[in-house]
Amino acid sequence: MVIAVAGLLVVVLVVLYAVFDPATSGLFPRCPFRMLTGLRCPGCGSQRAVHALLHGDLLAAMRANLLLVLFIPYVVCGLVLDCMRRKGPRATWVHATFYGQYAAWIILGVLFAYWILRNVPPFEAFL
Question: 3-state class of 93 per DSSP?
């Protein structure tokens, strides 16, 4: 039941993001961190990036939020590995190596580095 509800929610969100442009529609929330500080958080631009990806515009998605676009294959691979009923030795090693405790710390470091760098003038235009 939970999987069906989650699947339905994903379908509804995909349709909303495909039909409505977050940059021009008042339907989507604005980033509270950016509204309070004027700085961009790691998630800023994610809604526009999802909209651009659903319309096949990879470059616009990368301009909106590069980290989100780069992490999509990583997340999808992790979901596939989690859904596998029987994991062979290679899949088990990949899962332990790329989705274990050390990987979580590395991802957290990348997230904070991205957060800082996207607000530094020389890097703002690229991140």
Answer: helix
